[in-house]
Design brief:
Layout: E1 2-11, H1 15-23, H2 28-31, E2 35-40, E3 51-58, E4 61-73, E5 77-82, E6 89-98, E7 104-114, H3 123-145
């Protein structure tokens, strides 16, 4: 079963600052409520082909997975993909200048993939949980960057 969840927010900070912060895997535990650790599998900096391992908790389960960066346009777009675990996912961030003075950033976060195993049992519930989690994560990054 397919799932595709897109969330967005506007952050009162310049696009280059928001994108640099969000694209740095080391910051993920600070703004992703479910991510507890991050470990580079390839040497930084982030580039197409980089691999980064994450440990997270979602719906009461511990998940360990490694994302590979499949597209990266600094300041504009980041796409990473994993084929591991019960729900292989593709995560995409986009950033664009926003507002009259273009001093704000419109950030989107999209997760899509194919659910299998325990995850496929309640795809509607899973998508709703993902949407809630993504919304909380964007609220958190907004709060961090608007200080």
């Amino acid at each position: 079963m397919q799932v595709d969840v897109l969330t967005e927010t506007v952050i009162a900070a310049p696009c280059d600052r928001v994108a640099a912060y969000a694209a740095d895997p080391a910051h993920a535990p600070q703004w992703y409520a479910n991510i507890s650790s991050v470990d580079w599998r390839t040497p930084p900096p982030l580039a197409v082909g980089s691999r980064v391992a994450f440990v997270a908790r979602f719906l009461g389960r511990r998940l360990a997975y490694t994302y590979e960066i499949t597209a990266y346009e600094p300041g504009r777009r980041l796409v990473m993909r994993t084929d591991q675990g019960p729900f292989p996912m593709e995560t995409t961030y986009t950033w664009e200048p926003y507002g009259e003075g273009l001093d704000h950033t419109r950030m989107t976060l999209r997760n899509r993939g194919r659910l299998s195993g325990f995850a496929s049992l309640g795809a509607t519930v899973m998508a709703a949980a993902m949407r809630r989690a993504q919304h909380k994560d964007l609220v958190a990054i907004k709060a961090l960057l608007e200080r």
